[in-house]
Each structure stands twice: as structure tokens, then as C-alpha cells.
Amino acid sequence: MKKRYEDLETDDGTVVRYRRHDNGGGLVAQTASVDPTAFVAETAWVDPGAQVGGGARVGAHVWLEPGAVVGPHAQLGTHVHVGRGAVVGAAARLGTRVSVGSGARLAAGVAVSADESIPDHALVTRPDGDPHSLAA
What we know:
There is one protein chain. By secondary structure, the chain is mostly beta strands. The protein has strands at residues 5-9, 15-20, 27-29, 33-34, 39-40, 45-46, 51-52, 57-58, 63-64, 69-70, 75-76, 81-82, 87-88, 93-94, 99-100, 105-106, 111-112, 117-118, 123-124. It is built from no helices and 19 strands. The model has no long low-confidence stretch (mean pLDDT 92).
């Protein structure tokens, strides 16, 4: 049986405690907010102050930095990185190895293909009539 929590020391010496999420077993900081209906894969990390909405799916090896927000029913593939304070809108879909920069905003329903990188503070919206492509 796995430990129910892990302690991690940050660069500045602060110790942050992470607990295992009941749905998937991913590590969630005590000050993060993850809806019980969200799935957080066992190898995913949700940092302090991050939020994950109901029905969202956080894949393996995903890292949500402090203050990141993942909207309800969003789907994050494997090896995704969501930067500090970035927002992934409701029902957005991020492919494998997507990187979302700090402070970036992805609108609801946006689909981001594998291996894409969204710059810091970018605003990504869905072009009219095409739910699967990006317009920055």
C-alpha cells in the first residue's frame, strides 16, 4: 500500500505536503483544490493553490504549478505542464507534452495538439466555426 502523503522541500526551504487524490492517486498539495469527481493520475502533481474542476481528467506525469486552474471537464494528456497562474478553460483538451506558459489563458473548449507550447500570458481562443484549431 502506498503512503497517503508525500512531503517535498522547495528551493526556499518550505516543506509542502501532498496527499494522494482518491480518484487516480495523484499528488495534490494540501492548499490545492481538486474536485472529488476529477481524475488525477498517480504520477501527476498539483501544486499549492492550483484548482481542478469537476469531471476534469489530469493525465500521467502532468504538473500543475501554483495557482494553475483547470476547468470542469477539461482533459490533460500525459506529460502536460501548466505554468503558474495559467487557466485551462472548461472542456479544453490538451494533447501529450503540451506546455502552457505562466499566466496564459485557454478558452473553454480549446483543443491543443500534442507537442504544442503556449507562451507565457498568451490568450488562446477558438476561431469561429472550428472547435479544433487555435487562434492566439
